[in-house]
């Protein structure tokens, strides 16, 4: 069926099913509010203060482990010392005996829990019209709390926003669970009907499904949450590596050092990362020595018996292309592990298929005396699975130099550095792009991705004193690596560096210095 016909057929089905969805919504709302009313009444009852029946304050103790009794209307008057109360802990009505004070040890009233231990959930603390995500929310009994001022400042509390109202959220979710079971409608189809009070939206962080995951689930008898969980995002097909990786990159929190998918604490900063935007923008430099060979068939080992006429399927080649495209700093051994192929085959394919993007003519899988290094024109990215042995051989900052270049970094004076040696890593605070510290003329910012930079103005190590030199003069370069789940910016020797020599890095095309003109 042509696409237009399909769409109109789907619209027709949606129209036909709309009354059924409305009916389910009404039924769920009725059930939910009936339960909520009773539940609230019971909770209030359990909190109610019982008036003392004697002048001498009596204390209550439960009858032999609190015997269940009938509801309050049929409260017994047989024993004047017994009374019936709702035992909220046991969720039942139980009989208690009123005991004289003497002989009983009263449990002292515990002090109010510390502020931290009763931090309100975000529904309470968020104000809909407050741009500050975590405004100060005083405790209600705080004598210094100026309620008038507060009311003037904020128009409403967050739960008064429909999409934050937990009742509306639960009713929306429960209705869609039931509908998806009965009528097999997907969240997208339900959203298209525009019947539910909230959109379910599988693609937005503000959709009811996503919001529901962030809240504590309401445990009410009508909920089918555990029986029919709603699936919001369909996992990409196992065979589609490009989509799978794209998905992970999109979901990953872009905050440096946070590799948790959909990390809630950073959810408001959630940026859609794409294969391209997560890449390191500066001049690429990727020469890495893997620490060990990746296995018996690693090209680091004698190549006896390695077949040279291997052929890969189109899909296998595509996987290799995708991984290489994303992993800017990647060695044959890394590729071998990721593609689950022998290392020598990876090397062979890289040479054979120089035409593919990611392995263009400047792809150069070279065998050095010791090992294989992969040099590619693609910029470095944050995907790197190897452990980075970050041996700092950066000398301490030295005062001196010419012009504004006050402090500079030097290589260790104890030995010469060899080409591709890792000499340190950039440290600093993560800041959003454009929010760096430092003066307008002196900056300590290292761009990490489109969203975050590392700013070493107020924190860092000697790498922050590395000055700029145009590419041909620069003797060090940096690349971003994912090391044990953390993003690290490694600084590598681009060439042999004599002991004690000053270190220079090309800051990239955006750095406004006259030296840049010299290059042209
Ligand atoms: C990462 S810091 C390098 C350390 C800096 N020289 C210092 O004294 O703290 C970058 C800043 O150093 C200065 N800088 C770096 N390279 C320079 C160069 N080649 N010529 C002049 N100033 C330079 C600029 O002010 C730049 O914003």
UniProtKB/TrEMBL annotation:
Q: Which GO terms describe its biological process?
A: heterochromatin formation
Task: Specify one Pfam family.
Answer: SET
Classification via SUPFAM superfamilies: SET domain
Gene Ontology MF terms in the entry = chromatin binding; histone H3K27 methyltransferase activity
Identify the domain of life: Eukaryota
According to the entry, every stretch annotated as the SET domain falls at 381-508
One GO cellular component term noted in the UniProt record for this chain: nucleus
Xref: SMART domains = SET
- UniProt keyword Repressor present: no
Keyword list (alphabetical) reads: Transcription, Transcription regulation
PANTHER family given in the database record: HISTONE-LYSINE N-METHYLTRANSFERASE E(Z)
How is this protein named in the record?
A: SET domain-containing protein
Q: Which organism is it from?
A: Pycnoporus cinnabarinus
UniProt lineage = Eukaryota, Fungi, Dikarya, Basidiomycota, Agaricomycotina
């Amino acid at each position: 069926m042509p696409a237009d016909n399909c769409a109109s057929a789907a619209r027709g089905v949606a129209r036909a099913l709309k009354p059924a969805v409305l009916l389910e919504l009404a039924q769920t709302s009725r059930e939910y509010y009936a339960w909520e009313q009773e539940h609230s009444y019971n909770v209030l009852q359990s909190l109610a203060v019982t008036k003392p029946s004697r002048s001498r304050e009596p204390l209550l103790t439960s009858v032999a482990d609190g015997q269940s009794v009938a509801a309050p209307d049929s409260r017994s008057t047989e024993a004047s010392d017994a009374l019936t109360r709702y035992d909220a802990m046991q969720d039942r009505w139980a009989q208690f005996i009123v005991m004289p004070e003497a002989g009983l040890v009263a449990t002292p009233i515990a002090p109010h829990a510390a502020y931290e231990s009763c931090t309100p959930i975000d529904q309470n603390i968020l104000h809909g019209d407050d741009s500050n995500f975590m405004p100060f929310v005083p405790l209600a009994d705080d004598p210094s709390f100026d309620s008038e001022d507060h009311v003037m400042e904020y128009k409403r509390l967050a739960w008064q926003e429909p999409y934050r109202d937990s009742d509306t959220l639960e009713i929306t979710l429960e209705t869609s669970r039931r509908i998806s079971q009965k009528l097999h409608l997907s969240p997208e189809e339900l959203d298209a009907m525009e019947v539910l009070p909230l959109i379910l939206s599988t693609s937005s962080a503000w959709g009811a499904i996503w919001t529901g995951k962030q809240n504590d689930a309401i445990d009410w008898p009508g909920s089918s949450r555990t029986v029919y969980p709603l699936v919001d995002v369909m996992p990409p097909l196992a065979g589609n590596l490009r989509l799978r990786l794209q998905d992970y990159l999109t979901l990953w929190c872009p905050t440096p050092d946070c590799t948790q998918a959909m990390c809630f604490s950073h959810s408001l900063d959630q940026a859609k990362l794409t294969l391209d935007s997560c890449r390191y923008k500066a001049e690429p430099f990727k020469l890495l020595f893997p620490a060990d060979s990746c296995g018996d068939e690693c090209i680091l080992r004698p190549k006896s018996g390695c077949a040279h006429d291997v052929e890969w399927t189109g899909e296998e080649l595509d996987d290799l292309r995708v991984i290489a495209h994303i992993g800017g700093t990647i060695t044959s051994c890394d590729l071998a592990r990721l593609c689950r192929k022998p290392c020598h085959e990876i090397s062979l394919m890289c040479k054979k298929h120089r035409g593919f993007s990611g392995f263009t003519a400047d792809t150069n899988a070279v065998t050095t005396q010791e090992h294989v290094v992969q040099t590619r024109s693609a910029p470095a990215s944050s995907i790197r699975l190897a452990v980075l042995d970050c041996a700092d051989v950066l000398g301490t900052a030295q005062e001196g130099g010419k012009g504004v270049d006050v402090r500079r970094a030097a290589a260790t004076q104890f030995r010469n550095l060899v080409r591709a040696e890792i000499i340190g890593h950039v440290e600093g605070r993560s800041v959003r792009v454009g929010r760096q510290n430092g003066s307008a003329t002196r900056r300590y910012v290292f761009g990490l991705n489109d969203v975050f930079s590392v700013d070493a103005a107020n924190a860092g190590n000697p790498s922050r004193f590395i000055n700029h030199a145009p590419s041909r003069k620069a003797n060090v370069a940096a690349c971003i690596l994912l090391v044990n789940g953390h993003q690290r910016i490694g600084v590598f020797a681009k060439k042999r560096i004599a002991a004690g020599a000053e270190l220079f890095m090309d800051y990239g095309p955006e750095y406004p210095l006259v030296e840049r003109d010299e290059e042209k």
